[in-house]
Amino acid sequence: MIIVSAQAFPPRKGGIQSLLFGAAQAMCNAGHDVKVFADGNKQAGQWDKEQNHPFIIQRFSGWKPIRQRVKSLHIKKATTQHDVKAIYFDTWKSLENLKGDFDIPLIVWTHGNDVNDMGKRQGRIKAALTRADKIICVSSHTYNTVANILGSDEKLALIHPSPNPIQTPTAEENANTEQAWQTTQPRLVSFCRLIDWKGIDHALKALPEVIQHYPEARFLIGGEGDDKTRLEEIIRDLNLSQSIEFIGWVSETQKSAFLSSADIFLQPGRDVKGEKEGYGISYAEAALHGLPSIAGNAGGAPDAVVEGKTGFVVDATNPQNISAAILKILSDPNLHKSMRENCTSYGKTCLWDHKINEILALAGLEKQI
Q: Is residue 37 part of a domain?
């Protein structure tokens, strides 16, 4: 059995949640029994019942100190009752919360913003990572950050996150997608939490230049977040209401419909007070759908976009750089077609089938089927 311990796990939204869910599924598909110990309330438990997971999942809720202690005790008990081969942790916090000694591999993911804290938590981060047998870094930026914290890269492994496979939308979802676009082209789309460092504000500020050349351009923004009110103000100030629409969170199949029918995935993130993209699994997901991306050059995003091949990586602190990249793709049909082809082939190499072997090997394991 493999144990996965996670504070961040679906149905909560986010890159870490998607990564851990995909990893647990991939471990099962590789022939291993998997049990997930995840935080979550009654609503999460109900969601689990509706999903038919290939893994066993046990949820923990309540006051944080008690929740952490109870989860730790249950994990320890599981290691005495089952032949547990390894424990994988979503972040250093989950590893820190596990009490006791273990003679099995302890493997932890590091993502970016979770290990960027050089303040009062630095000692805790270093202590937890020192305890790990292996550390998975999701990007080159994260790898360098963790190596600096530990003073060594001996235990580190650079393994990029994998997007989920394409899920075929229904005819109704395809029809809803076309209705949302309201135009033939060009079509720009983004899916992310609406927070400042995702760069949607500067994407909006880049749009007027694009609309001068392509008056029918439309930008659909999927997701929710605390920055939405500010983004709506920018749209009003720039008189962009006819060109932009917030579509909220959508199902995975509906998302596939939007990604498959768009021209550019636009998410030009940047560094905002030290927070930035850890990797950017959304760019790999877009590539899998044959969709070129425009990403910012902060954090781990440059690892997720092959510059000039599957999109462009720009200095997203300046909206003019963003508009220039958009126009470069849209104005050159041959480049756009080439990028689409590159994206499709590159996206397939990012899938879990190609990555799970590396993750299992860190614990001395391999595929069973």
A: yes
Asked if the model's pLDDT at residue 119 lies above 80, the reply is no
CATH number assigned to the domain comprising residue 224: 3.40.50.2000
Euclidean distance between CA atoms 280 and 28, whole angstroms: 24
Res 194 pLDDT > 70: yes
Helix residue ranges, H only, the chain = 15-29, 42-51, 64-81, 92-97, 122-131, 140-150, 171-181, 200-213, 228-237, 252-261, 281-288, 301-304, 319-330, 333-349, 352-361
The pLDDT of 41-59, averaged and rounded, is: 94
Beta strands 34-39; 2-6: pairing state: parallel
Q: Is the pLDDT of residue 152 over 70?
A: yes
Q: Hey, what are 300's tokens?
A: 């781990």
Whether the per-residue pLDDT at 117 is higher than 80: the answer is no
Task: Map residue 58 onto helix, strand or coil.
Answer: strand
Name the token pair of 291.
């969709």
For a pLDDT cut of 90, what percent of the chain falls above it? 94
- 250-277 confidence digits (pLDDT tens): 999 999 999 999 999 999 999 999 999 9
Nearest-angstrom CA–CA distance, 294 and 162: 19
99: tokens are 């009490």
Exposed/middle/buried for 179, CB within 10 Å: 0-12, 13-18, 19+?
exposed
**Is residue 344 in a domain?**
yes
Verify that 237 and 136 share a domain, yes or no.
no
In a domain, 65, yes or no: yes
Q: Are 88 and 141 in the same domain?
A: yes
For residue 343, the enclosing domain spans 171-349
